Amino acid sequence: MNRKKQEEKPRIERMEPQMDADKRRSERFVTIVSLSAPRLLQTDVGFGKSCRKAAGVLSAGGLLSVSCIALAVVLCLAAPTTAAPTSARVAAKVGQQPVYVSDVLRRLQILRTRQKIPSQILPQFHAETLEQIIRQRLVQIDLKRLGKTADRQTIKDEMKKQEDRFAAQNSSLEETLTSRGISLAEYRRDLRFDINWKNFVAQQLTDERLQQYFEQHRRHFDGRQVRASHILLRPEQIDSPRQVVQAIGRARQLRQQIEAGQIRFAEAAKKHSDGPSASRGGDLGFFPRRGVLVKTFSQAAFQLDVRQISQPVVTKFGVHLIQVTAVRPGSLSWSQSREPLRAAAAKELFQQLANRERKTTPVQYTGTMAHLDPDSGRVVLPGRKQAL
Q1: Which end of the chain is more exposed for a tag (fewer CB within 10 A), N or C?
Q2: Number of folded domains in the chain?
Q3: Per-residue model confidence (pLDDT) at position 291
Q4: In terms of C-beta density within 10 A (0-12 exposed, 13-18 middle, 19 or more buried), how is residue 385 classed?
């Protein structure tokens, strides 16, 4: 146990931001490491530095983009990877639009050029990636309904720019796409969406609205730091969904005991935590919202008030209970936090549009691929009707 704690310390306490989870749809949510948070105008994706620059995004988080936007796909095509398998099998339908299994596998192939995906958690990757394609389609439909779509000439001009970029490198856009199993029609569709979304975000997220969003979510952007303690329950096999679920159950029981006054948080940490901070009662000291701890963890911590205890939070290290013990005020203005502020506001806007459109456009799953349960957000394996 001591060896495990020593090994964990540099990773949990010095790890660069890794993942940013979507908001859960239930009050009794469990924040799970999201493997495909929505790609917005600027948000967290896992394509690596060159691809993040191409997509106009902020920083890596081990996440797939909601759409492999055309420019990001093009600039990442040179990565050493084999073409994703093609298939006519349908994973889901958004209205009358099919989402093919091959669409999901192709998105995953891009991520797999940057990181190894253990086979045990592939269903989670499949489900999250499928969900992001579905959300993109929903937003695309919503934007069309609003009349916020680019005209043909705009798309044609942008296509010409991409073709010229490849020609300047003695290459061909069409040949490169074909080698990756991507048709020009698919590429043009993603390019159209990217242009439509950027234009819509530019119209919606004015300085006035960004200031309003800053005031509503000041704790995430004003540079404050929180001091927090945590209890880490680490399954023997972190890649085993069943063991993670069992750890979540243990965490919930511990939380109930702490809330009932049967044991104090620090005592519970010393007794039950598998993290290196256990001997300190789980104390991690002060840390900022971004750049120090894994994003899933810090995001959950910054949602809490002092002495409040989180619901179970799942990261690549295990299952955490978090308690904020102090807050060090920040002094940043909205303009000094413009980039992360804009990314968060765009992400929320994307979710709003997708959720709104989902009320009128039916989404059907065929069961050929793992997907997320619409109500709980948990994974439903192929051929099953109940979530894990």
Answers
A1: N
A2: 2
A3: 86
A4: exposed
Instruction: With 0.90 as the threshold, say if the pTM is over it.
Output: no
Asked whether the beta carbons of 138 and 359 are under 8 A apart, the reply is no
User: Tokens 């404050």 label which residue?
Assistant: 224
Task: Give the Cα-Cα-Cα angle 241, 247, 252 (nearest 5 degrees).
Answer: 125
Q: Is the pLDDT of residue 216 over 90?
A: yes
**Confidence tier at 280 by pLDDT (50, 70, 90):** very high
- The token duo for 305 is 């008030």
Residue 373 has, within 13 A of its CA and on its CB side, a CA count of 15
Residue 238 has a CB neighbour count (10 Å cut-off) of 18
Same domain, 308 and 357: no
Q: Is residue 44 part of a domain?
A: no
Contact between 364 and 92 (Cβ < 8 Å): yes
What six digits make up the tokens of 350? 């994307």
Distance CA 26, CA 128 (A): 17
Single out the residue of 179, 88, 94, 185 nearest to residue 132, CA to CA.
Answer: 94
18 and 291 in contact (C-beta within 8 Å)? no
**How many CA atoms are closer than 13 Å to the CA of 196, on its beta-carbon side?**
24
pLDDT at 386: 63
Residue 203 and residue 251 share a domain: no
Residue 2 has pLDDT above 60, yes or no: no
Q: Are 234 and 317 in contact (CB under 8 A)?
A: yes
Report if residue 163 sits inside a domain.
yes
Write out the residue range of the structural domain in which residue 78 sits: 49-213+341-380
List 229's β-bridge partners, or say none: 283, 323
Percent of the chain with pLDDT over 90: 51
Q: What is the pLDDT of residues 361-380, one digit of tens each?
A: 999 999 999 999 888 888 88
